[in-house]
Amino acid sequence: MIVELGHYSLVLALILAILQTVVPFVGVKTGDDRQVAMAPNLAFAVFAALAFSFTVLTWAYVTSDFSLLNVVENSHSQKPMLYKITGVWGNHEGSMMLWVLILALFGALVALFGSNLPPSLRAMVISVQGLIATAFTGFILFTSNPFERLSPAPFEGNDLNPILQDVGLAIHPPLLYLGYVGFSICFSFAIAALIEGRIDAAWARWVRPWTLAAWIFLTAGIAMGSYWAYYELGWGGWWFWDPVENASFMPWLAGTALLHSALVMEKREALKVWTVLLAILAFSLSLLGTFLVRSGVLTSVHAFATDPTRGVVILGILVFFIGGALILFALRSSSLSNGGMFHPISREGGLVLNNLVLTTATATVFVGTLYPLAVEAVTGEKISVGAPYFDATFVPLMVPLLLAVPFGPLLAWKRGDIYGAAQRLYVFAGIALVAGLVTLWFATGAPVLAAFGIAIGFWLLFGSFAEVWQKSGLPKAGLSKAAARLSGMPRSVWGTAFAHAGLGVAVLGIVSVSAFQQERVLRMSPGDSTELAGYVISFDNVEAREGPNFTEDVATFVVYRDSDPIATIAPAKRLYTARGMPTTEAGIHTTGFSQVYVALGDPVEGTDQIVVRLWWKPQVTLIWLGPVLMMIGGLFSLSDRRLRIGAPTPSAKRRETLAAAE
């Protein structure tokens, strides 16, 4: 009975989402304040209905209710409780439920925290959110119903994909969806503003907190997904330019550009066209990622669905929202004023450069991701576009942007002094130069490009705090006065510094592991030892073990440094009995920011040998510590006073100008 209630609640959510779309829109257009006032309550109701439906589906997984087809296909009675819960979104139907639940959550948050918005704008934003919720709730009900019954019910389920039976499934998809779907609010603000025909600095300030929140979550989701793939798949890589990885990376690039563009619009009322277009593109690229994962056009460890019918429906939804938004933008863009003028060498000019590079980089990733699909659709020929293409196109684009990043915060608005900024950065440039030269000197055989990359990393890491250093008054100001200045500094300044420094930390990790990692692949028997990067790794033994729903062979390796044992690593090969699928569980020892990584291959037939892959990965953890710093920077900026107190009230003269324009 409770399953039926969950199904009915999903149907109710669809009906309420339709009302959420229509009632506020009609209220705004007819000037009916009662209908406008209904918007928040409808947003809360849609969220409540979807939350109840999702809870019921989760309960079915927890209790192993095998009368549901979705539970049978993705669960097992012997599966650990954590994976029973995370298995809810470890499949197409359940993940779509999580997707639309988060969408409704953001609509409810606008209703809850949008009291500082004009009532008509808040109602229109909630209406657009309702339209998106209507489309995807309808998609779930008519093509991907998670409450489909089986009769008679089997006694046991098929288990969850073994690769997904990891704590990463509890963290990565929710974070990624909070970022993906979070950009829907930016999209809704853009559409609402285009419909109302009013986009100004106040609008930019309303949009920025939602953009920041989505960007923080998406950064966390991408970083967690990268680390999950790194330790779970046993291939030792942290990024593969997989099409579905790219599908999450493109909205991140567009969202990063949107953050900077909205800042210019808020400060100077410039770049209005850029900002609105980026708000549309960020969510459009999120929709594209949804299509790629669920359409069946890709074969990937990330892909959930292979049913082309679902893909066609999602494609239709994608075309409707993206096409409709771009048409509306084209019709309204001519009415958007240019805003404040500025010199090319200025804070605004630097942010325009940032936007140009990021959007061009997004375009290169877009082409590299979709070109193979287009070729296959037209010619039937399968081709692949991999790391060589992206290394040759994306990386050269990013280098000048990374070099320019520390200059941006030091340039004044409207007209800046590039020479003055350079003078304030020469110490940090010297640190970066020394770091590059030290790399060339001490890293035997280090390529020049690696030393250049290390120099860029240090340039970003230290140069990002140049503005903080300048505003502190050090070294002329005393420590007490400098401390007082630092404590009173706007949190957005600290946020910018930490976010840019995090980018530098990530660059250091990427360059170090790409240029200096060592790898060995060899056959080893118990008792054998091998040397790797100054460590001696000894193969001790292999032991068979039983898990709750798997069997595994666990190998024990002892790591020695200068004849002293410093760590024990236990990689494993697992076999999940229900599906008969093997997985590789890597053994990892972290020392400082570096790691020794061991993965087991197949046993050599007729011997006691096992193929073993060993890696020494110097500074690899910096790749993920960098995004952590970036998230900290985002949280600092999100807590800045000007974002907490809401949008500024236009001056009397400004209000008169706006009234005359109407």
Characterize the overall form: globular
Average of the residue pLDDT scores: 90
Largest beta-sheet characterization: 6 strands, antiparallel
| C-alpha termini separation | 56 Å
Total number of helices: 21
Helix content: 55-70%
Query: Strand portion, in percent?
Result: 5-15%
Which helices and strands, and how do they pair?
Blueprint: H1 2-30, H2 33-62, H3 69-74, H4 81-86, H5 92-113, H6 119-143, H7 168-196, H8 201-232, H9 243-268, H10 272-294, H11 308-332, H12 347-379, H13 387-404, H14 418-442, H15 448-463, H16 466-472, H17 479-487, H18 491-516, E1 518-524, E2 529-532, E3 535-546, E4 550-561, E5 564-569, E6 572-576, E7 581-585, E8 587-591, E9 594-603, E10 610-617, H19 622-638, H20 641-644, H21 652-661
Antiparallel strand pairs: 1-10, 2-3, 3-4, 4-5, 4-6, 6-7, 8-9, 9-10
Helix pairs in contact: 1-2, 1-6, 2-5, 2-6, 5-6, 5-7, 6-7, 6-11, 7-8, 7-9, 7-10, 8-9, 8-19, 9-10, 9-12, 10-11, 12-13, 14-15, 15-18, 18-19
Structure description:
This protein is α+β, with helices and mostly antiparallel strands and about 650 residues long. Helices cover about 65% and strands about 10% of the residues. The chain has helices at about 1-30, 35-60, 70-75, 80-85, 90-115, 120-145, 170-195, 200-230, 245-270, 270-295, 310-330, 345-380, 385-405, 420-440, 450-465, 465-470, 480-485, 490-515, 620-640, 640-645, 650-660; strands at about 520-525, 530, 535-545, 550-560, 565-570, 570-575, 580-585, 585-590, 595-605, 610-615. The strands form two sheets. Strands 2, 3, 4, 5, 6 and 7 form a six-stranded antiparallel β-sheet that branches. Strand 2 (about 530) and strand 3 form a beta hairpin. Helix 7 packs across helix 10 (about 270-295) and helix 15 runs antiparallel to helix 18 (about 490-515). The longest helix has about 35 residues, at about 345-380. The protein is globular, with a radius of gyration of 27 Å. The chain starts with a helix and ends with a helix. Mean pLDDT is about 90; it is low at about 655-660.
